Amino acid sequence: MAPGGRRSGFATFAAAAIALMQISSLVFPISAQQSNGSRVVPAEGYCSMYGICAQRSDGKVLNCANATKAVKPDTLFSSRIQSLCPTITGDVCCTVDQFDTLHQQVQQAVPFLVGCPACLRNFLNLFCEMSCSPNQSLFINVTSVKQINSTMTVDGLDYYVTTNYGEELYNSCKDVKFGTLNTRAMDFIGAGAKTYKDWLAFIGRQANPNEPGSPYLITFRSDFSDSSGVKPLNSTIYSCGDPSLGCSCGDCPSSSVCTGSLLPQLNTETSCSVKMGSLKAKCLDFSLVVIYLALLCAFLLWGLLHRTRRTAFGQTKPFWNSDNKPDSNKNGKSPHNSVQVPEAASSTVKPSNPSIVQTYMSIFFRKHGIFVARHPLLVLCVSLLVPVLLCIGLFRFKVETRPEKLWVSPGSQAADEKNYFDSHLAPFYRIEQLVLATSASGGSEAPSIVNDNNMKLLFEIQKKVDDLRVNYSGSTVALADICLKPLSTDCATQSVLQYFQLDPKKFDDSGIDHAKFCFQHYTSEETCLSTFQSPIDPSTILGGFPGSNFTEASAFVITYPVNNKVVTTGKENGKAVAWERAFINLVKEEIRPMVLAQNLTLSFSSESSIQDELNRESTADAVTVVISYIVMFAYISFTLGDRPSRWLLLFVSSKVLLGLSGVVLVMLSVLGSMGFFSAIGVKSTLIIMEVIPFLVLAVGVDNMCILVHAVKRQPDQSNLEERISDALVEVGPSITLASFAEVLAFAVSAINPTPATRVFSMFAALAVFVDFLLQVTAFVALIVFDFRRAQDGRIDCVPCARITPSKGAGDAGDEQRLHLLARYMRDVHGPILSYRAVKFVVITVFVGLTFASIALSTRLQPGLEQQIVLPRNSYLQDYFDDLAKYMKVGPPLYFVVKDFNYSSASVHMNQICSINHCNSNSLLNEISRQSLSPETSYIAKPAASWLDDFLIWMSPEAFGCCRKFVNGNYCPPDDQPPCSASSTCSNCTTCFLHSDLDNGRPSTTQFRDKLPWFLDALPSSDCSKGGKGAYSTSLDLSGYESGIIQASAFRTYHTPLNKQSDYVNSMRAARDFSSKMSKDLQMNIFPYSVFYIFFEQYLSVWKTAIMNICVCLGTIFVVCFIVTSSLWASAIILIVLAMIVLDLMGVMAILGIQLNAIAVVNLVMSIGIAVEFCVHITHAFMIGTGDRETRARQALSTMGASVFSGITLTKLVGVIVLRFAKSEVFVVYYFQMYLALVIIGFLHGLIFLPVRV
């Protein structure tokens, strides 16, 4: 974020503040020769100095050190004095010339302080008393004089004021705002003084020739002896809370009418906690522990009662035998009828009656299997025709990479507000930035970067940037052609070099000390102004400094704001993008070596850098993903094959060609889905290309394993038609159930408003559906071909070659045909899980992990760190680290008011402004009040208000601002042409008299006529409130003649935002504030900052995630219930899926993975993959025969082995490869989350689920 803020080129506001210091020169001249002044005896009616004696070299008038009696003015002069200095009556100690000069100079103070009349009156009285008080000698003592042309002029004096006077004077002015620069007026008129002594010391400091400020030393003193005759100034001080002088709450928050805001301060949410001794736990955590312990006790009590009841009837079977193993025969096998289980469980249980849907499925799959086995070529050709036709749509394939199109729904509040802001005001400018920093060594702090060598390096860098040229569409583009120019002359470059106006010769003349001087006086020294005539806040161009000690800064921050345009065709910012890419190349090739040679570090960025790096990232890990797929394919080919008794038969029994064909079918389903949606104009995303193949491959491989293993399990005596049809009858319903549950879950998730998530769900639903169709048609036909090949002894991948198997080399019965994994599941895994003690431990541990995951999931933080989505070797990694380390200013924040009614009949004006006579609960007053609590409001400063400045600019008190010629045309201030070059403006008058305004407010016509004048008025010393540059794009004048301003913005800043949670919380706080203000003021107000559009998703990401998860789970439950007609089975599947998702979220919290759209997509996808772990085993259990333990072992032996080899191991080997991806996003959101999903799914599907069923 550009530290200078949007439209940072304010005109010469500082020059006006500087001129305030010159007021003292109106009454205290200097001389060429110094001499000591003699003490004037204090007496009422006597002066310490009187009259103008000479001028010094810079033209400032010099007063005479003249101890004379006060003079009685004539009636006209007396009335003039009374108009400016109402406390001065009777005789005076100033001449007409002195008063005229005073009157001319004080006009420069008025624009700063007129918003708070009490402060302005007190401030003017301080100089009025010093200039014209008839009792001047009582509190003014000339301590030093100089002689010019034989005349003694003042060179130094003591100004006696009481401590109470000084404190009350400071208190009346300390909070007065200078909204144009989002700061306090005290920063300009007092160099940010924190006490009255600091303020008066700043006012009284002696300035060098040709520098603004007092020409002599004024020492404000409160110490004196009673015998000295001194009577310190103790005139009336008006409190800023005095109702008669009407200071606003923004300028006087201590006022009694302002102490109670109608809008309560925004508070951070405090979580409930329970304290037990030294331990403190959240209420939710404590509740979960209590619930878990209660359930555990209930479960133990139930087990004991059940065991006691069975013991009483003599029906108890031991939990385990003396060997801690199930009973087994001599061969080590565990036949079903020999397992010791409770009687209730050991009785033979008939399989569940299939539902009507399952019955029809079985009939269909038997007929379908026979047809495919008889006509495999026809089925293969027809089934492949569908995805091939869909792939034709790939000719219209496009990838959407624009973040705002991926993560922001078209109807979102942030998108609408951004469009409104861009179209009515102006798009936020583009940012090109360099950060140079020193490095710490040996554990010590980084040294200061502010030295001569580094400044010279900056000038060299600046020259290279200025000289950079790039060709775009036949034209040459330089920074000057595209940069932001608030006053249409110079670029608003934010750099420490601006203290030298980007001129190396000025640096050679004044050196590094001038920069250090400007760090403290940037608001009050004209020589510190930038080339675009604006003060440069050192906190925006320096970094790594403690407190406000800018000289110890360890980093330079250079920002080049570039004009931005509303994007409609994508080419509007073509020149800027071309220059930005050349800028990045320049930094890499030339500037970085220069910086490193000085033992400094360099980080950099341009507006287009993130987009360019994201595009580079999309191809950076293509090789890694391809390798991952190759590894999975190799494993698939291995796991589908048989283990023959002779190694030569391995070439026949292997399934490499079948596995490759299955992977091709998976890819065809993905391409077909992408082709269909491309044909209807839906753009793809990088997530689709990275995630959906993984998802469909997981589902497809599982189905491939299940189908192939089911065919292998059929008796060898059956012909191929019977084996195919029986296999489909066995596993077809579970494949259909799982696939349709996944398809409908993804389809329903397409209601998600986030485009990336919605498009992913659409593509995934169609891809899984097409893959299912290809699995039960084309892949079954390929199985037929492969089994025919194997029966004929033809070599895999080379079917033209044949190996004649020797006699007895075939399969050795069921045990030989069963894979090692299947035998393990049947003989080891299943029996172990049948022990009651094991069941108790499994249920206790898994339920406990679920409760722990619920507690952990509440700690998931929304967001997506920018460093994660970028390649690890991206130059932006260092840049974002440096921003968090060095930036002291947050992003600009705008409060936009829609349809502001400025007519006299409307109350909108006083509901918004923050000067005198504005409502105490006005928008700007409340913003100022919120800035006092930045830790909760995230608002750093009061808002810059064009309305306040316009009303002050029009005010008759600001007589140097709104002026008109005799003919009624606009007359600029006297220090601007043509007034500065001639006496053309001598007859100019203020636009209005007090009587022309209604309580200081203009009429509708006056407002409408003078607003364009204000927006075209240049700020200067005589009037710092001109709106040109500062407010050129702060309001939309389209149709404003009707009395309605469609859009107007009031700029402030967020506090520095370093974490994703800071961005989210700051946006939430700003929206809450705007919502409350809109309701309170009955106006349409919304906040806008450039990052809102990207972070809005995180305000509702929890809602989005929960909605998607619940919709998916609910859909799967309904589908399972319809297909199985078993509420119990459907509920078991639902519970296990919910536990898998909760555990995955718990792992995310442990690993610090943030919740965002990518994570939501992965959570939705995890449900789809988790279905494969549950449905097949549950269906196999339901159709099995025997007692529960027997059926569980049967399910594990058949489906468990297929699920483990088809999903767990396949995904495991593929996921591990992603660990070596170059992009952190792959490692975090694909490797870590996928690995966690595979492990959690395996544990629940093959350990917890068999125990539950």
Automatic annotation (TrEMBL):
Presence of keyword S-adenosyl-L-methionine: no
GO terms for MF: lipid transporter activity; sterol binding
Keyword Membrane: yes
Residues annotated as transmembrane: 286-305, 376-395, 622-640, 647-671, 691-711, 731-751, 763-785, 1081-1099, 1105-1124, 1131-1153, 1159-1183, 1195-1221, 1227-1249
Residue spans of biased composition, Polar residues class: 331-351
Recorded superkingdom: Eukaryota
Residue ranges constituting the SSD domain according to the UniProt record: 621-785
Classification via InterPro entries: HMGCR/SNAP/NPC1-like_SSD (IPR053958), NPC1-like (IPR004765), NPC1_MLD (IPR053956), NPC1_N (IPR032190), SSD (IPR000731)
Signal peptide residues on this chain, from the entry's feature table: 1-32
Region Disordered, annotated ranges: 320-351
Pfam families per UniProt: NPC1_MLD, NPC1_N, Sterol-sensing
One GO process term, biological-process aspect: cholesterol metabolic process
GO cellular component: endomembrane system; membrane
Keyword terms of this UniProt record: Cholesterol metabolism, Disulfide bond, Glycoprotein, Lipid metabolism, Lipid transport, Membrane, Signal, Steroid metabolism, Sterol metabolism, Transmembrane, Transmembrane helix, Transport
Cellular location(s): Endomembrane system
Membrane topology category: Multi-pass membrane protein
Family designation: Belongs to the patched family.
UniProt cross-references to PANTHER family, sorted A to Z: NPC INTRACELLULAR CHOLESTEROL TRANSPORTER 1
Family matches, as NCBIfam families: 2A060601
Name of the featured protein: SSD domain-containing protein
Organism: Miscanthus lutarioriparius
Lineage, top ranks: Eukaryota, Viridiplantae, Streptophyta, Embryophyta, Tracheophyta
